[in-house]
Amino acid sequence: MKKIVIFLISAILMLISANLSAQTEKNQTTGCQFRFVLEDPLGFGWHPNAGITVIVDGVEYGFINLPWGTPSAEDTLLLPSGEVHFSWPDDVLFSPTKHYFEIYNSFEELIYTSPDVPGLPESFFIYQNECSECLPLSDFEGEYNQETKLINLSWVAPESGYVTGFDIYRNGVFLAHVDSTIKSYSSQTDTLETGDYKYCVVPVYPYTCDLEEKCFETYINNVGIKNYSSDIRLYPNPANNELRITNYELRITNVEILDVFGRKQKSRKAEKQNAGREMVIDISNLANGIYFVEITTEKGVITKKVIKQ
Q1: Domains annotated on the chain, with CATH
Q2: Which helix (H) or strand (E) holds 165?
Q3: SS3 (DSSP) at 257
Q4: Contact status, residue 165 vs residue 180, Cβ threshold 8 Å
Q5: What is the pLDDT of residues 167-212, one digit of tens each?
Q6: Which residues contact 131 (CB under 8 A, 6 or more apart)?
Q7: How far apart are CA 178 and CA 44, in angstroms?
Q8: How far is Cα 78 from Cα 220, in angstroms, rounded to an integer?
Q9: I need a labelling partner for 44 at 20 to 30 A (CA). Which of 24, 54, 188, 291 fits?
Q10: pTM for the predicted model, two decimal places
Q11: Residue 21: which H helix or E strand, with range?
Q12: Alpha-carbon distance 34 to 42, whole Å?
C-alpha cells in the first residue's frame, strides 16, 4: 500500500512538473501579438464563466475575460503560427446586449467582430496565423573613422517582409530608430568620453522576437572630451502638451520629433534670442505613444526617447 501511495505521489509530481514546463514554454513563445477589445454595454461585466478561449494547434494559450463590474477593457496574447481556434464556453449564452468584442491581429487588422445575434458555436472563429519567422541581419559591418570621428554601420535587411525598421543601441542604451528602407547608420563620436563602445542594430518586427544582436565594438579615444549628451534635459517625460529641452553646455540649433517609424512629426529651429540653450515645443496635437527627439547641437546630433500621454 505504501509503495502504491509513493507511486501515485511521484506520478502527480511528474504531471505537475510537465504542466509547469509546458506552461513556461508557452509563456516564452515568440509570436504575433493579438489584441482583444472587450465591452459590456450594460456596464456589469461578463458572466464569471464567460470568456474567449484561445487554442493554437491543440494548445491553450489564454482565456480572455471581462471582469465583473468592468464596462470595457483590452487584453493581448502572443500567438505563434498555426491554426488558432477562438471559442466560447458551452454553458454561457452569448448575448450582444451584454457581450461585445473585437479581435485584431499583429498588424492591427480587424479579423473578427462578435455577431449581432445571441449564441455562439463551440468554436466560433478559426484563423490561420502566419507569424513570419524572426530573421536577424546579415552582412553586418561596422567601422570607426578616427579622422571624421564617425561610427559607420551597414547591414542587409532580413528576407522577411515584415520588418518595420531598425533600432540602434550604444552600450545597451537606445540611440535611434530608422525606417525599414534604410540599410546604414552613422553616429558622431566627438562628444563621447574616452572608452569602449558597443553599437548594435536590431530589426523591429510587429510581433515579439528574440533575436541575437549584431554588434560592432570599438575603443574611442577622446581625451578631455565631456559626454555632452548627458547634459541635455528633456522634460517632462512623459509629456502632455509641452516638451522642454535644455542644454547649457552646447548650442541647440534644431529639434525634430519622429514617430517609431522614423517619420518626422515636428520640427523647430532654435531662436536666436535664447542662443539655442532652451526650447519649448508644443506636442499637444501628437497622438499618445513613443517618439524620438533628434536634437542637433553644434557638436552633433543626440537622440532621446519621449513618451506622449
Answers
A1: 31-129 (2.60.60), 133-224 (2.60.40.10), 226-309 (2.60.40.1930)
A2: strand 165-170
A3: strand
A4: yes
A5: 999 988 888 889 888 899 998 887 788 888 999 999 887 766 777 7
A6: 31, 32, 79, 80, 81, 106, 207
A7: 45
A8: 41
A9: 54
A10: 0.44
A11: helix 2-27
A12: 25
